C-alpha cells in the first residue's frame, strides 16, 4: 500500500493511501486508454474532507519528482471525488510504464498533501502489437494437455522482460523450472470468439544466460488447447528481442494425461521429464518424432485480445481436513468440514504405478461413500499414478471441484489427515465485509452466504462449482449482486463480467440467460436486470462512471428490445420468474419442479421492464443525457401503469395471486400508492404469520420479501423469517448440516437440480448489512462520499456489528443494548459524510464520548424519525449512547 504523510502534522497526520489505477495498486499490463485513478485519505482528526486534488502523470520517475506532468496534469480540481477519476491526458502507449502521484487539499489544512510515486504499465493496446500466430496440435492428442517448449539464450544484460500469455483454455508458464506467477486456471473464462484475455508477467528475475521455457496448455473451457504469446526482452544497450508463439513449435504430451474442468485431472508421475528443464535442445532427437511434434499455426479463436484486468484465480486458503475415515475395506473418505470449491493436495509413498483415485462430492450415501448423483455428467475425479520415488507431492493444475467429501481409493497403506491439504481456489478478490451479532444463527447464516459466494467466483459469477454447469446465470445475479459487494471487493470482477454479457448481445439488442453463453434462453429472461445492475451498483458502491459510459449503448439496446416484446405494456414472455420456491409452490412434473405456480411470469417480466427502464433512466442522468433520461422515465411510468392495471386486485388488496412473491415484488418496485400500500403490507405480513413465519418465495422475491417487510413497519416479521429454523428456511439448511446454501429450500441429493453450493438464495446476506447493521450507500453521492447508517434494533437481538471496506475506507456500525440504554459505535472514513440514525426513545439522552451532543457543531441535527434522531456527521470514530 502506498502511503505518504504530510509534513509537520504529528497527531494531526493526514495521509494518502490505497493509490490505484483501474482499481489495482501499481498494475502491470492494463489496456484501458482512459484508466481510472483512485485513492483514500487517512487521518486522526474528525471531519476530514478533501476539497481539491491534482493528479500528475509522467513517463519518468525524475520528472515526477519535479512535478512535471508532461503526460497529464489535471490541474487543481475543486472536488471531493477520490475514485473514478478518468485519465484525460496524452494518448497512452503500449508497453510503457508511467509514474503518477496526487496532491490533495483538505478542509483541515491550507497546504497540499503530496503522495509518494505510484506506477502503472500498459499492456498491448493494439491488436497489431501481437506478432505471433495461434499455434496448437489439432490433428492429434484430442482433449490432452499440450506442453510447448522453447530454449533461448542471451549474451547481453537484460534491463526489462515481459511475457504476454494467452494459452486457452488454461495455461501455466515455467521458465527454468520455476512457475511464473501465482495464478491458476488462467486466463479468465470468456466467449473466446469475442474476447480473449491475456496475462502480463514480469519475467526478468526468472532469466539466466541460457533459458528454457515450458508452457502447459489445457483444454479448459475452450476444449482444444491453443497458444498465443510473446516474450519481449529489453537490453541495457537499448536493443530488444521478441520470442513469439510462431517460434514456439516444439510440442508434446506430459504427465498431465488428461484434464477437464468438470471431469477432473489424471496425472502420471512416471511421465515426468526433469530434462525438460535443461536449457538445451539436445534432449530432442530429430523433429518431429514419436514424442515431440511440430505445432502448426491453427485457426484463431476469433476474439479480440484484451488485458486481464480482474483479480486472477488463485489458491486463497489451505487447511487440513477434519477427518479421514475408512468406510469400507480399502476405501476412505476425507471430510473437509465445509462445502467449498478447489482441490486437494496429497503426500503419498508407494510403489511405482500405484493408482490413487480421488472422487469428490457434496454429500454421502448412508453407507458413508460419496454420493455424486447431483453432479450429473461431471466425473469430478482426480487420479494420481505414483512414480515410486519416496514421498511424492501432487495437486491438480487444470481442474477444480465443488465438494466437502473426497473418496480415496487405491491408497498404498492407510491415509491420515496429514496426507492431505485442502485448498480453496477462486478469483482472488479481497474480502469487503464482516458481520457478527448476538444471535449465532445469524452469524452462521452470514458465514454460509459468504462461503457460497466465495465458492462461485471463478472469473465469472458461477451458479455452482460442482456439477456439469458452473455458468454465469443472469437471473440469479439480479438478487445476488448486493450480497456479493458487501462480502467482496468486486469492482474489477464486475467490470470484466459486464463485458461477458455484452459479448452475448446480438444486433437486435438481445442478451442471453448465461454469460459467456453456454446454456439457457436466448433472449434472456426479462428478469435479467443484472446486466444493468452490474453498472449501476458499480457506480453506487464504487463511484465508477466509466462502466456506465462504456456499456450504456448495449444496456439501452437490451431495454429497447424488451419493449418490443410487450402488448399493452405487459411483457409477454417469461422462462423462470421467481425460480425455485418451496416445493409445494412449484410446478410438478416439469421444469425441475422449480417454476412457480402462483407467481405469474408476466408479472415478474413486466415488473423487471419497469425496473430496467428506471435504472437506465438513472444512468442516463449520470451521463447527463437529458433526452434519454426523460425517455426512459416515461417508459417506466407507462410500464408501471400497465403493471397496476393488469395485476392489482382491488378485492384482495394485493397483486397477482396476492402471494408473498407478488406483493413483496410490487412493494419493492413502488407499485402501490399510499392508499394501496397499507393493504398490501398487511396482506404480506398476514400470509407470513399464518404460515408460522415461513416464506413461500423463490430466488428473486426472497430478497424483496425481507426488504419490503423491514421498510414498512414489519421488521420483526422479517427477523423471524431470517431466524426461522424449520423448513423452509436458512436455519433449516444449517440444521441439516449445510455449510453453504442449497439450490432448493429442500434437502435433495438426486441427479437433478440439487446443488448444495448455490448463491441464488443468499440475498439474506445483504439484508444483514443493510438493515441489521444499517450500512447503506447513497446513489446520489456514489462511492460512499455520503452514505447512511440506519440499523434496525430488533427485539430478540442484543447486539450486532458490521464493517465494510468502502472505496473511502473502513466503515463500522456496531450497536449493543445495555441496561435500558443503547451503545452505538460507528466509524466514518475520511472524505466521507454519513447520515446517521441514532436509535433512541429520548433524543435528549444521546451522548457521544460521554458528552451530550445537542448544540455541538460536530453533529448536525436533521430531524426526528420514528425512534431515531437523525444527524449528519463527518469522518471519525464515534461512540454514541442513548436511552432505549
Describe this structure in words.
The chain is of the alpha+beta class. It is built from 14 helices and 50 strands. The strands form 10 sheets. Strands 21, 22, 25, 26, 27, 28, 31, 32, 33 and 34 form a 10-stranded mixed sheet that branches. A hairpin with a 5-residue loop joins β29 and β30 (370-371). The longest helix has 22 residues, at 601-622.
Write the layout of secondary structure elements.
Blueprint: E1 4-5, E2 14-21, E3 28-30, E4 36-43, E5 50-58, H1 61-65, E6 72-73, E7 85-86, E8 97-106, E9 109-114, E10 118-122, E11 135-136, E12 146-153, E13 158-168, E14 170-175, E15 178-179, E16 195-202, E17 210-218, E18 226-235, E19 240-244, E20 250-252, E21 256-260, E22 264-268, E23 293-294, E24 304-307, E25 313-319, E26 323-328, E27 331-348, E28 355-361, E29 363-364, E30 370-371, E31 381-385, E32 392-394, E33 401-409, E34 420-427, E35 433-437, H2 440-455, H3 474-487, H4 491-502, H5 530-542, H6 546-563, E36 566-567, E37 570-571, H7 601-622, H8 626-647, E38 648-649, E39 654-655, H9 660-669, H10 677-690, H11 701-711, H12 715-722, H13 730-735, H14 764-772, E40 775-777, E41 786-789, E42 799-806, E43 809-818, E44 821-828, E45 833-839, E46 842-848, E47 851-852, E48 859-864, E49 868-873, E50 876-883
Parallel strand pairs: 3-10, 16-24, 22-31, 41-45
Antiparallel strand pairs: 1-2, 2-4, 4-7, 5-6, 5-8, 8-9, 8-10, 11-18, 12-17, 12-20, 13-16, 13-18, 14-15, 14-17, 18-19, 20-23, 21-22, 25-34, 26-27, 27-32, 27-33, 27-34, 28-31, 28-33, 29-30, 35-42, 36-37, 38-39, 40-41, 42-43, 43-44, 44-50, 45-49, 46-47, 46-50, 48-49
Amino acid at each position: 500500500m502506498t502511503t505518504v504523510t504530510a509534513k509537520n502534522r504529528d497527531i494531526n497526520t493526514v495521509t494518502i493511501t490505497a493509490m490505484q489505477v483501474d482499481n489495482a495498486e501499481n498494475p502491470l499490463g492494463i489496456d484501458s486508454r482512459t484508466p481510472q485513478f483512485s485513492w483514500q485519505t487517512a487521518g486522526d482528526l474528525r471531519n476530514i474532507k478533501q476539497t481539491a486534488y491534482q493528479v500528475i502523470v509522467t513517463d519518468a520517475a525524475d520528472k515526477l519528482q519535479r512535478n512535471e506532468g508532461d503526460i497529464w496534469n489535471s490541474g487543481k480540481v475543486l472536488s471531493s471525488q477520490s475514485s473514478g477519476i478518468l485519465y484525460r491526458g496524452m494518448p497512452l502507449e503500449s508497453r510503457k510504464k508511467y509514474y503518477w502521484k496526487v496532491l490533495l487539499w483538505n478542509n483541515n489544512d491550507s497546504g497540499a498533501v503530496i503522495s509518494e510515486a505510484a506506477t502503472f504499465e500498459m499492456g498491448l493496446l493494439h491488436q497489431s502489437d501481437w506478432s505471433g500466430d495461434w499455434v496448437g496440435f489439432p490433428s492429434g492428442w484430442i482433449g490432452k494437455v499440450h506442453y510447448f517448449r522453447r530454449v533461448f539464450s542471451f549474451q547481453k544484460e537484460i534491463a526489462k522482460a515481459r511475457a504476454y500469455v494467452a494459452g486457452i483454455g488454461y495455461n501455466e508458464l515455467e521458465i527454468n523450472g520455476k512457475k511464473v506467477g501465482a495464478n491458476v486456471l488462467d486466463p479468465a473464462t470468456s466467449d473466446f470468439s469475442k474476447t480473449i484475455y491475456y496475462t502480463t508477467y514480469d519475467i526478468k528475475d526468472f532469466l539466466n544466460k541460457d533459458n528454457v521455457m515450458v508452457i502447459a496448455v489445457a483444454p479448459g473451457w475452450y476444449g482444444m488447447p491453443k497458444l498465443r504469446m510473446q516474450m519481449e526482452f529489453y537490453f541495457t544497450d537499448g536493443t530488444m528481442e521478441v520470442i513469439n508463439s510462431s517460434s514456439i513449435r516444439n510440442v508434446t504430451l506430459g504427465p498431465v494425461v488428461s484434464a477437464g474442468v468438470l471431469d477432473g485431472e489424471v496425472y502420471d508421475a512416471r511421465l515426468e521429464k526433469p530434462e525438460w528443464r535443461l536449457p538445451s535442445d539436445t534432449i530432442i532427437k530429430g523433429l518431429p518424432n514419436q514424442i515431440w511434434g511440430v505445432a502448426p499455426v491453427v485457426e484463431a479463436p476469433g476474439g479480440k485480445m484484451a488485458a486481464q484486468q480482474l483479480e486472477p484465480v488463485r489458491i486463497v486458503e489451505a487447511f487440513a481436513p477434519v477427518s479421514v475415515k475408512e468406510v469400507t475395506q480399502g476405501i476412505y473418505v476425507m471430510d473437509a468440514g465445509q462445502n467449498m470449491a478447489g482441490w486437494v493436495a496429497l503426500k503419498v509413498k508407494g510403489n511405482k504405478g500405484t493408482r490413487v483415485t480421488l472422487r469428490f462430492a457434496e454429500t454421502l450415501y448412508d453407507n458413508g461413500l460419496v454420493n455424486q448423483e447431483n453432479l450429473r455428467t461431471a466425473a469430478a475425479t482426480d487420479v494420481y499414478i505414483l512414480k515410486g520415488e519416496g514421498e511424492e507431492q501432487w495437486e491438480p493444475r487444470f481442474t477444480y471441484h465443488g465438494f466437502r467429501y473426497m473418496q480415496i481409493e487405491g491408497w498404498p497403506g492407510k491415509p491420515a489427515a496429514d496426507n492431505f491439504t485442502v485448498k480453496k481456489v477462486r478469483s482472488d478478490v479481497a474480502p469487503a465485509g464482516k458481520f457478527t451479532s448476538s444471535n449465532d444463527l445469524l452469524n452462521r447464516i452470514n458465514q454460509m452466504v459468504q462461503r457460497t459466494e466465495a465458492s462461485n467466483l471463478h472469473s465469472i459469477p458461477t451458479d455452482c462449482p460442482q456439477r456439469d454447469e458452473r455458468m454465469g446465470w443472469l437471473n440469479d445475479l439480479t438478487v445476488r449482486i448486493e450480497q456479493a459487494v458487501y462480502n467482496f471487493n468486486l469492482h474489477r470482477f464486475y467490470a470484466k463480467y459486464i463485458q461477458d454479457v455484452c459479448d452475448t448481445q446480438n444486433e437486435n439488442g438481445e442478451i442471453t440467460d448465461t454469460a459467456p453463453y453456454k446454456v439457457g434462453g436466448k433472449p434472456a429472461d426479462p428478469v435479467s436486470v443484472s446486466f444493468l445492475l452490474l453498472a449501476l451498483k458499480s457506480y453506487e458502491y464504487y463511484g465508477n462512471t466509466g462502466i456506465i459510459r462504456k456499456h450504456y449503448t448495449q444496456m439501452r439496446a437490451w431495454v429497447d428490445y424488451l419493449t418490443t416484446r410487450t402488448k399493452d405494456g405487459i411483457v409477454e414472455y417469461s422462462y423462470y420468474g421467481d425460480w425455485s420456491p418451496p416445493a409445494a409452490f412449484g410446478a410438478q412434473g416439469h421444469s425441475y419442479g422449480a417454476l412457480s405456480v402462483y407467481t405469474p411470469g408476466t408479472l415478474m417480466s413486466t415488473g423487471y421492464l419497469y425496473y430496467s427502464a428506471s435504472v437506465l433512466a438513472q444512468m442516463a442522468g449520470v451521463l447527463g443525457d437529458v433526452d434519454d433520461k426523460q425517455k426512459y422515465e416515461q417508459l417506466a411510468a407507462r410500464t408501471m401503469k400497465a403493471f397496476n392495471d393488469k395485476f392489482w386486485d382491488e378485492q384482495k388488496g394485493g397483486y397477482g395471486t396476492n402471494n408473498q412473491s407478488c406483493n413483496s415484488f410490487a412493494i419493492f418496485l413502488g407499485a402501490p400508492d399510499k392508499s394501496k400500500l397499507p393493504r398490501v403490507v398487511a396482506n404480506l405480513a398476514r400470509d407470513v404469520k399464518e404460515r408460522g413465519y415461513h416464506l413461500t418465495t423463490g430466488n428473486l422475491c426472497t430478497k424483496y420479501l425481507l426488504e419490503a417487510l423491514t421498510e414498512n413497519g414489519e421488521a420483526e416479521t422479517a427477523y423471524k423469517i431470517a431466524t426461522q429454523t424449520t423448513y423452509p428456511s436458512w436455519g433449516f439448511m444449517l440444521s441439516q448440516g449445510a455449510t453453504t446454501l442449497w439450490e432448493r429450500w429442500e434437502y435433495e441429493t438426486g441427479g437433478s437440480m440439487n446443488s448444495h453450493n448455490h448463491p441464488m438464495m443468499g440475498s439474506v446476506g445483504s439484508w444483514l448489512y443493510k438493515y441489521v447493521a444499517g450500512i447503506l450507500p447513497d446513489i446520489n453521492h456514489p462511492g460512499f462520499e455520503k452514505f447512511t447508517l440506519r440499523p434496525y434494533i430488533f427485539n430478540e437481538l442484543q447486539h450486532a456489528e458490521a464493517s465494510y471496506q468502502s472505496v473511502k475506507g473502513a466503515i463500522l456500525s456496531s450497536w449493543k443494548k445495555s441496561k435500558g440504554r443503547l451503545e452505538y459505535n460507528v466509524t466514518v472514513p475520511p472524505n466521507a459524510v454519513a447520515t446517521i440514525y441514532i436509535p433512541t426513545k429520548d433524543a435528549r439522552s444521546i451522548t457521544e464520548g460521554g458528552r451530550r451532543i445537542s448544540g455541538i457543531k460536530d453533529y448536525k441535527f436533521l430531524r426526528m424519525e420514528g425512534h431515531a434522531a437523525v444527524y449528519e456527521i463527518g469522518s471519525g470514530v464515534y461512540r454514541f449512547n442513548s436511552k432505549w
